[in-house]
Amino acid sequence: MDKPKNNIKKALKITGNVLFYGLIFLLLLFSISNLSIKREGDIANIMGRGFLPVLSDSMEGSESDSFNKGALVFVKILDEDDKKHLEIGDIITFFDASLNAINTHRIVYVSENYVVTQGDKAAASAQYVPGGDNTGIQYEVVTYANIKAVRTGHINGLGGAINYLQTPVGFALFVILPVVLLLAYQGFVLTKTLLAVNKEKIEAKHATDKEVMLEAEKERIRKELLEELKKEQNK
């Protein structure tokens, strides 16, 4: 009857440990990625791989790699050689001087010194035409120096949560607080285990001392009986 209960306890303990070390790992990733940012406009990354929450709907479209507002976009940080191999259709993350912020759009034109990007939503109504009259069309001219990364994938709907996690309140509530609680729980379990071990040691020592005392008492009684017998024999 106790075996199923023990299995459940064991499974819960394993699950708790997985969650605990998973959160520790996430906290470490956040810390390392944030430390990798050297200046404003850089992308938090680990070994050249990063992610960005999407804050606008400019990339909503019908393309297979279009994504919505609130998505989480995964990117690969580009070096100078990588930038030379960018092509029309690639989705890049760049520093947008007009916004003074990071932006992510699709390349619609490539030249020797710059690329032209456009959001899929804007392109659906009026696409940039190289060498044509693009008056009133929304597009961005991006120098290679301002290109940061290229999109490698995305998950719709996850960006909002990650964006909130990156705020001080979200980070404190959903990363730091759970880690603190789990550390406190682990400390409680460790203390309880140590107390149980000490109790077992004390009980074992007490049982040993009691046994020694019993043997000593038996020996004393035996000696007294022998003395009594000797006295009886000498009479």
UniProtKB/TrEMBL annotation:
Residues 204-235 form a coiled coil. The chain crosses the membrane at residues 12-32, 169-191. Keywords: Coiled coil, Membrane, Transmembrane, Transmembrane helix. CDD domains: Peptidase_S24_S26. This is Signal peptidase I.
